[in-house]
Amino acid sequence: MMVAGVSLLLAIVASAFLLFNNTRQTFDVIISERSVRSAASDLFSLLQDAESGQRGYILTGDKSFLTPYQDATAQVQKAVKRLANTTDGRAKYQTLMAPIQAQVNAKLNEMASNLK
What we know:
- This protein has about 120 residues and is mostly helical.
- About 90% of the residues lie in helices and about 0% in strands.
- The chain is built from 3 helices and no strands.
- Helix 1 runs antiparallel to helix 2, helix 1 (about 1-60) runs parallel beside helix 3 (about 90-115) and helix 2 (about 65-85) packs antiparallel against helix 3.
- The chain is rod-shaped, with a radius of gyration of 24 Å.
């Protein structure tokens, strides 16, 4: 009976350890995914801010609308680098970085050309 009890106790301890390890790994993945999502969201928000400022200037001609546009566009490349850094070493995201960079550059060029 004693051997069965000790065996059961060891099985419980081993399964608890495995569950703890699995939970820790899952938590690490979630935190990592969250950082990618946050970086992408920040980049998108900056692009929206720039577009809103550009639109306000185009519609009203009021140069005060250029301030949010200029502030946002000054930070976009830093946001792209942050996104690239958070996706570094992760193949499923790395393949998306080149198209994202190209689209961001195209959007910035489009907005700049509309202000001339």
